[in-house]
Amino acid sequence: xxxxxxxxxxxxxxxxxxxxxxxxxxxxxxxxxxxxxxxxxxxxxxxxxxxxxxxxxxxxxxxxxxxxxxxxxxxxxxxxxxxxxxxxxxxxxxxxxxxxxxxxxxxxxxxxxxxxxxxxxxxxxxxxxxxxxxxxxxxx
Length: 140
Fold this sequence. Notes:
This protein is of the alpha+beta class.
């Protein structure tokens, strides 16, 4: 969708996005969401309303994933397997970080790392569980 409302939304500030989200969904946004993430989420929701959202197969797959959500009191999903070629994406302080899973470890910004925790420390400056930082396991 080029030149349409969704593209315009990606240029909005946090206050405009928060107002737009409230009007579109009837819910208040979390205060810790970055303007970049919020504008993209709002653009996506606007496109879904205009174009009909996800296809039936995608909706079915999402419903299946929800059935296996431990927060809903059902089965615990298996530990994710990272295969070479997979990409992990994380936003931190307004920047998007992309990590490529390789045979030798992980690559970010042209540098190879042995662990996700090393990458999380490079990004944040603090000791983090790399899998937790990238959303691969749930914090307790």
